[in-house]
Amino acid sequence: MELKRYLKTYEGARKENYYSRISLIICLVIIFILLMAVLTKRTIVTIAPYTLTSDSWVSNSSGANSYKEAWALFFAQELGNITPDTIDFVTERIGPLLSPAIYHDFMAIIHSQAEHIKEDRVSLRFEARSVTYEPETDKTFVTGYLYTRSVSGKELHDLRTYEFEIGIRNFAPVLVSMNTYNDQPRTLRQIQLEESRRKSREERENARK
Q1: How many other C-beta atoms lie within 10 A of the C-beta of residue 170?
Q2: What is the model's pTM?
Q3: pLDDT class for 134, splitting at 50, 70, 90?
Q4: Please, what is the average pLDDT of the chain?
Q5: By C-alpha distance, which of 55, 69, 40 is closest to 173?
């Protein structure tokens, strides 16, 4: 009761007005901070890649490791399972996902291979065995067996690795670079191990001399 009577006085009303202004200023500052946080926060979308069993995420300019692994597996399966009848369809699907920096070179190689496949009536079949993402280099390696079937029906197979660097632009994957070779994944650790072995061989050879 004393508080109600006090607030009805001039001094009480003045102090109530003073603290109300302070509260209003604090609320405005909090609203401004929340507004800036909302405007600057990256939008993150949680997804479940069809090629993987775990959830993943992607934002405007980056993505989870599993997201890049899923797209690397997609690229490897598309490029490794080509027949004379599907080569044009595959290039149409992959073309929009290529970085402008590699688009012309990549498409030139694909079209050259397409002519070879159509002329020789060769079919390719790729069976993936492992997918590895390397954070240090932002590369994803898809390794498996590539089967090549000629028109005679004879089929040969080799160990094949597809090496991809996949970026994210506007929530969509972009193939920045690609390499393929008949070998195990050339990861940074593998390259360093091979370099160490090479130096050891050179040292042994120099010691014999």
Answers
A1: 7
A2: 0.70
A3: very high
A4: 79
A5: 69
Look at residues 145, 181, 138, 135 and name the one whose alpha carbon lies nearest to residue 162.
181
123: tokens are 């079919």
Q: What is the DSSP letter of 154?
A: -
Under 8 Å CB-to-CB from 188, ≥6 apart: which residues? 134, 136, 137
Which residues, at least 6 apart from 72, have a Cβ–Cβ distance to it below 8 Å? 131, 133, 140, 141, 142, 162, 164, 166
What distances in angstroms separate CA 129 from CA 78, 105, 141, 147, one per listed residue? 15, 28, 11, 13
Percentage of the chain modeled with pLDDT above 90: 22
Determine the residue type at 94: I
| CA 35/CA 93 separation, integer angstroms | 40
Q: Please state at what angle helix 100-120 crosses helix 87-94, rounded to 10 degrees.
A: 170
CB of 113 closer than 8 Å to CB of 139: no
The SS3 of residue 209 is coil
| Residue given tokens 């607030």 in the structure block | 7
Contact status, residue 80 vs residue 160, Cβ threshold 8 Å: yes
Let me know: does 190 contact 113? Beta carbons within 8 Å. no
Find the DSSP H helices in the chain.
Answer: 2-7, 10-40, 65-80, 87-94, 100-120, 188-208
- Give the Cα separation of 38 and 42 in Å (integer): 9
For β-strands 155-169 and 172-181, DSSP reports them as antiparallel
Grouping H, G, I as helix, E, B as strand and the rest as coil, residue 149 is strand
